[in-house]
Amino acid sequence: MYKFYVNDELVTAEEDGKLLPFLRNVCQLKSVKDGCSEGACGTCMVIVDGKATKACIPKLSKLDGKHIITVEGLSDFEKEVYDTTFSEAGAVQCGFCIPGMVISAKALLDVNNNPTRDEIAFAIRNNICRCTGYKKIIDAIENAAKMIRENKVVKKEYEWKIGESVPRVDAREKILGYGEYTDDMEVEGMLYGSCVRSKYPRAKVLRINTMEAKLTKGVSAVFTAKDIKGAVKIGHLKKDWDVLIPEGHITHYLGDAIALVVGETPEAVEEGKKLVEVEYEELPFVSSPEEAMKEDAPLVHEDGNLLARKFVSRGDARGAIEKSKFVLTDTFHTPYTEHAFLEPECSVAIPEEDGGIHIYSSDQGVFDTRHECAMMLGIDPEKVKVTNKLVGGGFGGKEDLAVQQHAALAAYLLQCPVKVKLTRQESILIHPKRHPMDMKFTVGCDENGIIQGVLADVISDTGAYASLGGPVLERACTHAAGPYNYQNFEIEGKAYYTNNPPAGAFRGFGVTQTCFAIEMLLTKMAELVGISPWEIRYRNAIRPGQVLPNGQIVDESTGLVETLEAVKEIYTENPHAGIACAMKNAGVGVGLKDIGRCKLEISDNKVHVRIGASEIGQGMSTIFVQIVATHTGLTPENISHIASTTINAPDSGTTSGSRQTLITGEAVRKASLDLKEDLKNNTLAELEGKEYYAEYYEATDPLNSDKTNPKSHVAYGYATQVCILNEEGKVEKIVAAHAVGRAMNPLAVEGQIEGGVIMSLGYALTEQYLLQECAPKSRFATLGLFRANQVPDVESIVIEKSGLNVAHGAIGIGEITSIPTAPAIAGAYYKLDGEFRTSLPLVNTPYKKR
């Protein structure tokens, strides 16, 4: 028996084990998050005898007599300090890392209540944050130190109007750890599920023997594809992803599920998995697009290895390049990238009395989850309910189903609640990554550096399943031209299946890859022409009323020139500075029906904002409350944003494509105006039971439309980023100027910029998702994620410009923040040492040697 203190209460443990599950499952202290169970992420940070400690590391036998503190054990004063400072600083996005950050902050401030920013950064160096870029977390801790020194909490007052920097509506529950993520759910009689995965990247499954596993103590059931009554294959767009691989069929990658084991405890499930016998016929695998495109290549899928081909052409690129004074051609490579969201995938499914199922999940689209799970179960979609709990980050990586289908299948068949959660290593293997791409670009310019034409080829590795490989390739191709004004453009892109882990949506959606290529060539072209990299971009920059290479005439909100002008001085003053520009669509566009929907429901003297759209940390929920407050004059006390659900909420589409603030935000605006009219003659109480519904849709034109000037997207955001290196060749500062239309919440905009920049700082310099014979060799600790004491300063320049008459002029910023960073950094190194780097992560830097 082991005795120790948790939040000043004596507790006893009969058996040895790790501290983390004891705190979560026995003490029910859910602020202590399980982000990796490998000692790598810091989400489980607690204080042990005054020292910040990862709870997944120490065993209970080493804690005899020790004192442990979690966020639940903070004093009321401390809770108010950290709630106020983290909220007001904008330090909270997805929130999964935040209780751990608070703990590391407390451990520091208990011994040093007047720390420097460097000391704060060092204190939280073992806490990974993938959302914020750390700057606002450091701001929060700095302010917390001041309040602790003064022994006084001072809160700001807010009007909650559009354009005001207000705290997130969900900040407090995330900071103090009582907000519920899916893994925090406790349901009576809940079982646990986990899948046996393929032993080989490509093999025929000859036989699955589950008999011995079913006899294992604590195992409730073992399911195979034979138990699926509906569709065995599902998928976000193309239905090619096997829920479970049937006998006689071929696996596509190591993450393929063969059997689903369900039991009373996670430990019993793991024992059962060991006893599932699978007989395979190992087959040759395809590990690259180069192999996939060979005539005699093994087929990853029966319909061939080519998933998608996209061809975009306007004008006469080849003729224009032939006549150009300066021509440059080069090849570029960008790698796989792991999203590394802090919350591993988890789902809880509960059977309903009507024969349906209720799925709780941390995904990016509840209606997508409903559609695919209903297909698999073979039941009416109306009988499948899906509700988001708090979502611990996504960045595109939670658009595809990972665990929801397995939780739903087990709960439906067993008629009891089932939780399915991926370990961190399973997550790294299973969910889709950023597409690796190989690109060849040719650019022609005249004697003044004006672009005459661009010709490009893109080859994408989409991995084992389609996911969003087609749309990602399309976006990579349509945006490969860059945010410039010229009319001769031709690009062909092909996405190939391989037996690698699948690739899908990732912040930037293909544009991070092709932007790296076009921007690097422009930097080199400036040298040929004899002008600066800033000047060549300024001369070619798209301006309002001009025509993009895709034929779209851009509107008055187009602000690329303003972003360039904003960074000109700092770029020209620094000898080792690199620069890059980008544009990114907001809204799905390209002819697809992209509808935003909103329902405002009046009950209990409150306006309940009901929207079937996922809040994944981007701040959408807060902006919607601001919109309602602005038009109605109500305060947040009378406005409640309901978590995304398919129950009594309209489908507002996937949280993807930087679309929610713009597309769904306009629907919220329209519904708010209707409510405003009724409030002129009625109180909220008098409107009890009323609902206000609105939707927004604006038609766009498909790829290769025959219109002279097609409208590909409702809106575009624009950006220029500058990287400044110090004398040692380390990144000293990134200046990021972004044209956002209207900044609905400037603090949240800054947070998106800072987080996106730091994410792509890793993409450019340190991050690697290593594969060997289709098998991931990276762990969370070896992905190369930047830590708080390693990141440079990020200066955000937010440029507002009117011209878009939708959603108050707001243009989504979630993705573009990550797009120009890598070429800006590579450009800075080119200026420093003259080495023109064409692949990521960059080599021969202080961060990575060749």
How would you describe this protein?
It is a single chain. This protein has 850 residues and is α+β, with helices and mostly antiparallel strands. The protein has 21 helices and 31 strands. A seven-stranded mixed sheet has the order 8-11-6-18-15-16-17, with helices on both faces. Strands 2-1-5-3-4 form a five-stranded mixed sheet, with helices on one face. β1 and β2 form a beta hairpin. The chain is globular. The two termini are 53 Å apart.
What are the defining features of this structure?
seven-stranded mixed sheet, single chain, 850 residues, globular, alpha+beta, five-stranded mixed sheet
Brief sketch in words of this structure:
The protein is α+β, with helices and mostly antiparallel strands. It contains 21 helices and 31 strands.
Topology overview:
Blueprint: E1 2-6, E2 9-13, H1 19-26, E3 45-48, E4 51-54, E5 67-69, H2 76-89, H3 98-109, H4 117-123, H5 135-150, H6 171-175, E6 191-197, E7 203-209, H7 211-214, E8 219-223, E9 233-234, E10 241-242, E11 257-263, H8 266-274, E12 277-282, H9 289-292, E13 306-314, H10 317-322, E14 326-334, E15 346-351, E16 357-361, H11 366-377, E17 384-388, H12 404-414, E18 418-421, H13 424-430, E19 437-445, E20 451-463, H14 469-478, E21 489-497, H15 511-529, H16 533-540, H17 560-573, E22 577-586, E23 596-603, E24 606-610, H18 620-632, E25 639-641, H19 660-679, E26 691-696, E27 715-725, E28 731-741, H20 746-765, E29 771-772, E30 775-776, E31 793-800, H21 821-833
Parallel strand pairs: 1-5, 6-18, 16-17, 20-21, 24-25, 28-31
Antiparallel strand pairs: 1-2, 3-4, 3-5, 6-11, 7-12, 8-11, 9-10, 13-21, 14-19, 15-16, 15-18, 19-20, 22-27, 23-24, 23-26, 27-28, 29-30
